[in-house]
Amino acid sequence: MKKSKKNNNKKYIYVIMLCIFIVLVFTITATYLNIFKESRGNVSIVKNYYGVIFSNVTTNDDLSVRINGNVIDVQLDNINSLLTPKIFYVDVTNIGNQNVMVDGIYISNMSNSDIGNNVIVETSMLKSDILKGSEQKKLKVKISYVGLGQENKSYKFNINYLFKEVNL
Fold first, then answer.
1. Extended strands (E) in 63-154
2. Can you tell me whether residue 18 is helix, strand or coil?
3. 102: helix, strand or coil
4. Average pLDDT over residues 59-68
5. How far apart are CA 129 and CA 168, in angstroms?
6. How far is CA 160 from CA 16, 57, 72, 78, 80, in A?
7. Taking the chain, what is the end-to-end CA distance rounded to the nearest angstrom?
8. How far apart are CA 67 and CA 55, in angstroms?
9. What would the mean pLDDT of 52-81 be, rounded to a whole number?
10. Residue 80 pLDDT more than 60?
11. Which residues pair with 141 in a beta bridge?
12. Of the residues 72, 77, 109, 153, which has the maximum number of CB atoms within 10 A of its CB?
């Protein structure tokens, strides 16, 4: 009977020693991490930002209009269709919280400069117009041709918008 009592006492001693060892390892690890912890790196918080997105082209006319960033690509199969003005609309959204101003509007990548001299592009959003943070506006673009009729000439061009940050 004495042997089984000694075995039970040895089991309790092993269990107690194991628990003490686990607590000791945890304490040493926590102390090491607390003493040698360092904060490394830089953090920058951007409070004010802007981003202008063009989206949702709508038109009732036979125009091919695509959006590529702040560039509107327009393609016509026949320039004579512009003898009656064509209109399309684009949603312009400032996704930031900083106000922006239209810094410039220009036409680029004209497929035929002779035709381009007679094409008039009017936009509802002009230079120096302000787009407030998280505001959305409808951009109206009216295109017309004031030249002589051409025989089945196609025409392509881009409308480019430049924006800059502004504080009001």
1. 64-68, 71-76, 86-94, 100-108, 119-123, 130-131, 136-145
2. helix
3. strand
4. 88
5. 13
6. 77, 15, 7, 22, 24
7. 93
8. 7
9. 89
10. yes
11. 88, 123
12. 72
Q: Which residue has the tokens 């673009």?
A: 141
The beta strands (E) that lie in the chain are given as 52-59, 64-68, 71-76, 86-94, 100-108, 119-123, 130-131, 136-145, 155-165
> CA of 23: how far to CAs of 17, 20, 28, 31, 142, in Å?
10, 5, 9, 12, 78
What does the alpha-carbon distance between residue 111 and residue 158 come to, in Å, rounded to a whole number? 10
State the Cα–Cα distance between residues 138 and 114, nearest whole angstrom: 31
User: Residue 111 half-sphere exposure, CB side, CA atoms within 13 Å?
Assistant: 12
Q: Which two tokens stand for residue 93?
A: 């959204």
d(C-alpha 69, C-alpha 61), whole Å: 23
3-state secondary structure of 54: strand
Only one residue has tokens 């922006």, namely 100
- For 39, the token pair is 């904060």
Sequence length of the chain is 168
User: What pTM was computed for the model?
Assistant: 0.68
What would the two tokens of residue 44 be? Answer: 């920058």
CB burial of 43-58 (b: ≥16 within 10 Å; e: otherwise) equals eeeeeeebebebeebe
